[in-house]
Known about the structure:
Domain Mannosylglycerate hydrolase MGH1-like glycoside hydrolase: 387-622
Number of strands: 29
Number of helices: 18
Keywords: Coiled coil
Largest sheet: 8 strands, antiparallel
Pfam family, one: GDE_N_bis
Organism: Micromonospora lupini str. Lupac 08
CATH class of the largest domain: Mainly Alpha
Protein name: Amylo-alpha-1,6-glucosidase (Glycogen debranching enzyme)
Structural class: alpha+beta
Helix content: 25-40%
Distance between the termini: 74 Å
Number of domains: 2
Amino acid sequence: MAAVRATPADPTPGLMSEAGQSGDQRAMPPELGPDSLAVLSGPTFMYSNSSGDVPPGSIGGLVHLDTRLVSDWTLTVNGGALLVLRAQTIEHYSAQYVLTNSALPALPPNSLGLRRLRYVGDGFHERVELLSFQPEPVRLEVRLAVGADFADLFEVKSVVRDRSAEITRDHAADGSELCFSYRNGDFSAQTRVCCVPPADRIEGDELVWDLDLRPREQWKVDLHVPLPPGMGVVEPVRGDIADVVHGRVDDPLRRWVEDRALLRSDNQALERTVRQSRDDLAALRLDLEVKGQKILLPGAGLPWFLSVFGRDTLISAYQTLVAGPLLAKGALLALARLQGETCDDFTDEEPGKILHEVRSGELTRTGQKPYGPYYGTADATQLWLILLSEYWRWTGDDETVRHLADNAMAALRWIDEYGDRDGDGYVEYATRSPEGLGNQCWRDSPDGICFADGRIPVLPLATADIQGYTYDAKLRLAELFDGPLANPSLARRLRDEAGTLYERFNQDFWIDERGGYYAVALDGDKNLVDAKTSSMGHLLWSGIVPPERAEAVVRQLMSPDMFSGWGIRTLSREERLYNALGYHLGTVWPHDNSIAVLGLARYGYRAEANRISLAMFDAAEQFDHRLPEALSGYDRERLLFAVPYPTACSPQAWAAGTPLALVRALLGLNPVGGRLVIDPDIPAELGRITADRVRAFGQEWRVEALGTSGNVRLQAS
């Protein structure tokens, strides 16, 4: 019998763990619904349905550092569920729910006015306010059911192990507190629910208050779930719940945001979208400790990816350099400190490799998952070098580049010695871990790389986008070796290697059929994986496309089969596996489109870049000016409105960075020789764009543009 060959869907035949692939992800369950809300602060979030409840068995709950501290949070009055009048977030960390009652025995509908106020800061805080509109006294039972399953976030999005036998309870006899505790070896977690006033009684894991309310009498209870001490929330907001929700307390985050570059536009939707992006990137900031190193970076996205990622962080930092260099510098330094040092099959670590993902939950800390950190990515190392170059171009910071010289050399060695697995000049990937990812490019779902006829290729894979990144990284590194790293002979070698890669790539990856396009990958047998994908936009961004082929690539990207009207689809509708709701099989990803826009602008296709940018801004306007992680690939003319991917993260870092990258492309804003230069092409729909406090070369600049005219000047300090 022939041996089973590894594919991204089964990357380690015979070694797959009982837990299954770490990429497993359940669909959004109906019990939270499309109007679900989350409050967020760093690595802590509370995710509930629109009434503020977390039904048991759902993906909702209070999660901190990848551990779910609350899995059931259900409020009832006289045994009845509450009806939602309106609910919305106020800030990323706060929300308000306005509720009333349904028809209940001896209580007509709409007899009660209820409000839930909540925020996440130095813990989870909630206030429940209840007002009786009945003309006569009423007797009410208010009940809060609480559960704590201590599930690892990996389990929340797949299957949760039952820990009930290991969970102990130490509830307070006076009704002031519920306490749940769990321990597994060196891993421990505790959930305390404190309440003022205390409950009249505790029944099982439920707090119960017995009320006698006069007409127009109001009652309230404050609930608090403390967070475990240590790393986590960056500068949390603190204060009385109502004061926090109404903005009457000091907000450290607001001060941080107000110190950043400020964009104004005649188009209010654009201005609000950029402002929302700035707020979201600030909200996602994490304060973590990994391998003894303190890391201050944005997490990738709520709810699944509130942790540090290599690829996501690097692309987000690149997108946002136009607003300032701090995120880029932080990403470079933090990821360099965690750069791979040894070969480890379980974690896919190799010397010089930049990490993929960090996790803090039980499965990682007890060694069942390889995420402390995990290195299964074949593109983060090149992206780190690209960001290092781009950071230097915007800042002229020779000192930081020299400080990271050894890391840059280690990254280069990884590309040549470990990334190129078979010595053919291309960077390939294949996991060695039974818990590893099958696809290690950004299209990292098991079927994210496929043939046009739907077949899944055999590993190892050399994807087109990774070769483009490698080409760009070597040219950029050559620039650094001609400059602050002062090694012109190595610079010449890198340019020669990049030139060879350019020639070979354009010979080996190009397909003349179907109008001419680039294959998405070479498989383990060096066959062309011939699906048409959005990866062609990444090739434009990297500059590996010859000018004479750019028009064919642009025509493919903007064809009706690839451009949905909201953006470029990840996979063409021509291909067998196309699915408007498939994670990488036809959805529209904002960050993916921002990279394509930068590539289109690079090659002079400004009208096409603007068409995508306007579509992205239109989509953001439909989601309260916040772009989700991904949009469904439905045709815009058919549905008329944008539809999010069912389990899209929101906010999500590289989706939040997208509007800033689009603005950079609109302005044609680039650092050249210690100055900012501008070459705007702004559609009439956006009017005038002005940006103040744009930081570059240690100075602040004012940028102003209208149509194809613009100027850049230094601002007085």
